[in-house]
Write a structure and sequence with these properties.
The chain has helices at 5-30, 48-64, 79-86, 100-109, 117-120, 145-154, 169-181, 193-201, 212-220, 268-282, 285-293, 303-324, and strands at residues 37-41, 68-72, 94-99, 121-136, 160-163, 186-189, 207-211, 225-229, 255-263, 297-298. By secondary structure, the protein is α/β, with parallel strands linked by helices. Strands 1, 2, 3, 4, 5, 6, 7, 8, 9 and 10 form a ten-stranded mixed beta sheet that branches. Helix 2 links the parallel strand 1 and strand 2. The longest helix is centred in the first third of the chain and has 26 residues, at 5-30. It is globular and about 65 Å long. The N and C termini lie far apart (64 Å).
């Protein structure tokens, strides 16, 4: 069959356009990056996560030959900057610091989240995974985690615990602990871990589950008593502290993690370039030591493994949020 000249012209033109697009994408990837990149961080500047983000950004920039400029915005629990990243071109020049809050918790907590993070981004790699710490004041009558949990089980609803805010990692980890161990306690939300720890030390609350960086100095100075960690394995930073899992609740796990993701559709060669630079950075002496000093271990896994972890985390926290009716 002879193709009509007009149709043949359109067919050849479309084929040529497709080929040129493929070639341009390939060439584009080979020359990445040719200008500065942005790392969007869903936290305000000055915190521990921001400090790690800046060190990682510096290392990636040095390895790729272009600066990776950090931009912070912690508004709406990180949802605004996450949406900004999701709507950015998938060209590798916008990278998001992915954290469990915006990525796998907020979609189940907030009623107005318009972006499905797991569908809107391609994973690059998981940077680190950090346990949280179950702590009490030095004058607390609870010497061990078992003491605390046994008392809470026998005196339902009488103990209080502070958190860094409603829906924060410290809040959800404590809710998960209560649900897993079978007790009730009263939640007292604060505007950040600092005020919550202040009231813990003064005896206004009974216990707290919080991130290691927020409480590390207090643990080292014996200003708080560390009862347990929330990771599946003991933390290398606190080898004598048991895990909640080994105390009799093997399914309990609550960690603070962060990694890197890029807008959906970013070319594979660019994702690989970003991952290679990230893995090299976090395995360097400076970052590795910094992470370990905060109770974290560098990971740097493959994108597929990171994606699977985030899916599992999203399902797990969705069940908890739904069963406890937590919302923001």
């Amino acid at each position: 069959m002879t193709m009509h000249p007009t149709r043949r012209t359109l067919f050849l033109g479309a084929a040529a356009f497709g080929a040129s697009t493929t070639l341009s994408k390939s060439a584009w990837s080979q020359h990445f990056p040719s200008r500065p990149m942005k790392l969007l961080v869903p936290y305000a500047a000055g915190g521990g996560t921001d400090a790690i983000a800046r060190l990682v950004a510096q290392g990636i920039g040095e390895r790729l030959g272009q600066s990776l400029v950090v931009e912070n915005n912690g508004s709406a629990g990180g949802n605004l900057i996450t949406a900004q990243a999701a709507s950015s071109p998938p060209d590798g020049y916008t990278v998001l610091l992915a954290n469990q809050g915006p990525m796998v918790v907020n979609p189940h907590l907030f009623k107005n989240v318009k972006v499905d993070p797991l569908a809107a981004f391609d994973p690059v790699t998981l940077i680190s995974d950090t346990p949280l710490a179950l702590v009490v004041a030095p004058k607390s009558p609870f010497q061990t985690a078992r003491d605390l949990i046994d008392h809470a089980q026998k005196n339902g609803g009488k103990l209080t615990y502070g958190s860094a805010g409603n829906g924060s990692a410290s809040h959800l980890a404590a809710v998960l602990l209560a649900r897993t161990a079978g007790f009730e306690a009263i939640h007292v939300p604060y505007r950040g871990a600092g005020p919550a720890l202040t009231d813990l030390l003064s005896g206004q609350t009974d216990f707290m589950v919080t991130t290691v960086p927020s409480v590390l100095g207090l643990i080292e100075g014996k200003a708080v008593r560390l009862l347990a960690v929330t990771s599946p394995q003991r933390a290398k930073l606190f080898p004598d502290a048991p895990t909640v899992a080994e105390l009799g609740w093997p399914d309990y796990r609550a960690t603070a993690w962060y990694g890197l993701v890029v807008p959906k559709g970013t070319p594979d060669p660019i994702v690989k370039a970003l991952r290679d630079a990230t893995v090299s950075t976090i395995n360097g002496d400076t970052i590795r030591e910094r992470l370990r000093n905060e109770g974290a271990e560098p990971i740097g896994n493959e994108p597929a493994a990171f994606a699977e972890m985030m899916r599992a985390e999203s399902e797990r926290w969705a069940r908890l949020v739904k069963s406890t009716n937590i919302s923001i």
